[in-house]
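Need the bound structure for magnesium ion, inputs here:
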Amino acid sequence: FFQAVASPPSSNFLLLGPSGAGKTAFTTLLEAKSSLASNKSHSTHTSQQSTLVTVTLPPTVPTGSNRYRSVNDPSLKEATRNPIKYRVRDTPGHGKLRASQGIAELQAMSQSKDIKTRLRGVVFMVDTAALVDEATLRDTATYLHDVLLFLQKRAKNGSSSKRTTDIPVLVAANKQDLFTALPPGAVREKLEAEIDRIRKSKTKGLLDASADTELEGEEEILGNDEQEAFSFKLLEHEVGVKVDVVGGAVKGDLQEEFGSGVRRWEEWIGMCL
Ligand code: GTP
Ligand code: MG
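Answer from helper R.:
Posting the output first, comments after.
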């Protein structure tokens, strides 16, 4: 016989990214999708505090542990009756709040000893219509660089005895509904090139600093191989930190192209569960 075992909402995801990217709009949408009777007001404004919400994965989205779920699969019925819950922490993206909130949350959540509450993945949201602006691109890439560098250090410090579990990153290329939006492939290229620039200037800074003093050896360069241009593939190969860039839209009518706008991000989340 079957017993309805309520799955505890123990899988955590962290939502990072610059101000105005759409993090709170995304969180609000997930909440609305999760509750049938939702008459919440959808006003978003610049966040100053992070919030934690519990949402449900649509039953038709496959999960990592149930990869080949088909429409005829009895487990779909089960998933409809007992949907999988997960938690999302929305953080403020303002530059002045990143160290104390976004990065601090990343540190705290990734250190969770409890396997059940461990961080399953990071969703780094970007406004793809704003990346043509040089300053926005630099700001976005700097934040992403810092997030990836933290994950790199974490991956390297995890000794083989107490092995750390992977924390993959989804770059959610948001606002694809806007006609000025860059497609996901271009977003990837721009971010990679900008991160490469940041990495190079950091390497140069370190070399200059170490000209008359001993190199401290503490500072680390993202991706390790300074000869090769930075790419997310390189990061995955050299360090084991996986980054996917996937387009979508929280707002606008993208039913055709993106399947409800956020479907592909939910699929990414499902694969982490
Ligand atoms: P901070 O809290 O400052 O870090 O920003 P945030 O990432 O939470 O941004 P927020 O969710 O407040 O969204 C900023 C603005 O972008 C809002 O006016 C949203 O309505 C708008 N927005 C979010 N997603 C989309 C989208 O997919 N398309 C369009 N056109 N606008 C969007
Ligand atoms: Mg917000």
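Comments: The chain has one domain: 12-33+45-185+241-272. DSSP finds eight helices and six strands in the chain.
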